C-alpha cells in the first residue's frame, strides 16, 4: 500500500473580520498559506485533501496562485494528489466555477494522471478507500452512503451525529446508525475541526491541522495530520496550543508571542467600555493574528452574567435553535414550509 497523507479544513483565503485588524487579517491569510506549505513539503507518498482547502467558493486570487505554486512544486516529485470537494469549496450556484474547481482544472491539465479532482464518490484501489465528497444536499449524501462498497477506509466530509447540521451552512451529517452499518473498518471524517473518535475507533474525526480562528484552538491541546500506512492510521502532531494560544485577563493584556488570544475575565456593567477600549488598543499593538473578546460583563439591571461576542452572534443558527424547541411533528411542518418556499 502506498502511504497516503490526509489534510483537511485548511481554509486558505479565510478573511476574518471579527478579532482582527486589516493588517492581522491579511497576516492570518499568509499564516494559513505558510502552514499549508510546511505540511505539504514534508509529505511522502500520496496526498489527499479531504475538503475545505479554501474558506469560500471565491477567495483572493493571490491565495489561489500561492496554493497552486505549493502543490505544483510538490507534484513535480511524481506523487499523486487527490483533491476532494468540501462544502466551503463550492459556490452557491452550479453555473459558477469556484476557486477550488479552478485550481483543480489547472493542476489536472498540468499533471494529468497525477491529480484527481473528487466531486462524485470514487473508490481508490491503491489505498482501499472509498471517498464521498460534500454533496449539494443531505438526500444525495445519504444515497452515496448507501452505495459504499466493502473496503478498509471510508472518507467523508461531513458532521458526525449532528441532527441539526443539515439545516445550516451547507453542512451534511452521518448518523451513528449510518456509521455503524457502513461496510468499512474505519470512517475518516473531515469538516469538524476538533479531533475525536467514536464507535470503538471505527469513527475517526481527524480535526484540522492548524487553526484559522479562536474556536479552532478550543477543545484540544494539539492538532494532527492523518497518515495511512500498512500499519493503519498514524497521527502526526502539526500544532500545539502551547506558545500559540493564550487566554489573558482583560486587565493585564500582554504580547506573549501567541498567534491566537482569547481575552477573558469578569467586569461589572460600568466597566464594559473599559473592556472594549482595552481590547481595541491591544489589537492595534499586538502581533497576534486573532484576538477575541470573551469577557463576562455583569448585567446592569438583573445581575446576570452575559457573554455575547461578535463571533457568537455571527455563528448563531436561528433555525437550529427553533427546531430544538419543537417536537418531531412540529419540526416536520417547519421543514415542509421551508422546502416549499425554496421550490416556489
Which structural class best describes the helix and strand composition? alpha/beta
CATH class division of the largest domain: Alpha Beta
- The helix content is 25-40%
Instruction: Return the average pLDDT rounded to an integer.
Output: 90
Count the DSSP helices. 10
Q: Gyration radius, to the nearest Å?
A: 21 Å
How does CATH name the architecture of the largest domain?
4-Layer Sandwich
Tell me the domain tally. 2
CATH H-level homologous superfamily name of the largest domain: Metallo-dependent phosphatases
- Head-to-tail CA distance between termini: 50 Å
- How many beta-strand segments? 19
From N to C, what is the helix and strand string? EHEHEHEEEHEEHEEEHEEEEEHEEEHHH
CATH topology of the largest domain: Purple Acid Phosphatase, chain A, domain 2
Content of β-strand? 25-35%
Largest beta-sheet characterization: 7 strands, mixed
- Ranges with pLDDT <50 over ≥5 residues? 300-316
General form: globular
